[in-house]
Amino acid sequence: MIFLVARWLSSEYLFFAGYVVLQFIVLATAWNILGGYCGYVNFGSAAFFALGAYTSVFFHKAYPLPIPVLILLGGLVSGIVGFGMGYLTLRLRGAFFAIATLALAVVLQTLIINWQYVGGSRGAYAIRPASIDILGLALPYMQYLFALMLILAVAAVSIARLIERSRLGYGFATIRDDELAAEACGVPTLRLKLIATTLSGALMGMAGAPFPYYITYIEPSSAFGLAYAVNSIAMPMIGGTGSWVGPLVGALLLGSIQEYARVTISSAVNLLIVGVLLVAFVIIAPNGLVGLVQDRLKARGR
Fold it and tell me: What is d(CA 112, CA 25) in angstroms, rounded to the nearest whole number?
């Protein structure tokens, strides 16, 4: 429906801007699986996003593959790294775990900068064709990327919703509320946390896989950009980390504001907008927009 409306309006900018918002929906939802459901704050979102992007760059140079396949490969590579990161760091808790994820991002960025095959510090080009033929229909390539990211966003939100209402989600909640008590009750906390890091990393990598074709030129500073790490955390916190709908609301709100500011003012103010909104919501609505609405409804019910 969203895709058809954008085509009906015949605005190419809607596809460019919409792609970014959908991309942030995936990132925010992926971050929330580990940070919101389990309570483990991950500062390394940009690293997993970049892994997916550079997986595409690698295969673009070695053996070009269709983007849906690259999305799956990006998710596979990032999921494996997420599992490895979890196995090495999940015995840490609180600020120590957050610092470890930040260190992972720095290490991966250093490796990419020095890996000349994928462009190194000079960057790499991924020229996209003007259009792609799908069942006899010549679809502009940007619209094709938008459609793929829309499918991925729907899949990510659906996965988060299923987790929240499953035994896995209840296990995540016990870890978030009191991990020591959960372990004492026999909950396999390490196994659940490894599932969370793997799934979260995989979704972030899948969000990053089409990025080189969207931007057409990728370099470490753009793939490992601070905006991805900050927005991945800020959007769930503004929307509400306690449910699947929180990251969706936060990404739609904050992503739309940033895209509007990019056109009307400058992209340089995007992080300023994030900072101001984050501080405001921490003070006014510490549980996010969804939590604020739920509190208001409960108050009316009484």
Answer: 26
Domain range for 177 is 2-224
Quick: pLDDT tens for 135-157. 767 788 888 899 999 999 999 99
**Which residues 6+ apart lie within 8 Å of 102 measured at CB?**
43, 44
Predicted pLDDT of residue 75: 94
What integer pLDDT is reported at residue 7 of this predicted model? 57
- Quick one: which of 215, 236, 248, 220 has its CA closest to 288? 236
Tally Cβ neighbours within 10 Å of residue 27: 31
CB–CB of 246/239 below 8 Å? Answer: yes
What is the domain count for the chain? Answer: 1
> How high is the pLDDT of residue 264?
78
DSSP string, 201-238: HHHHHHHHTTHHHHHSEE-HHHHT-HHHHHHHHHHHHH
Strands 124-125 and 217-218 turn out to be antiparallel
The pTM (predicted TM-score) of the whole model is: 0.90
Interval 25-41: pLDDT, tens = 999 999 999 988 988 88
For residue 90, how many C-alpha atoms fall within 13 Å in the half-sphere facing its CB? 23
Q: Is 48 a domain residue?
A: yes
Does 290 map to a domain? no
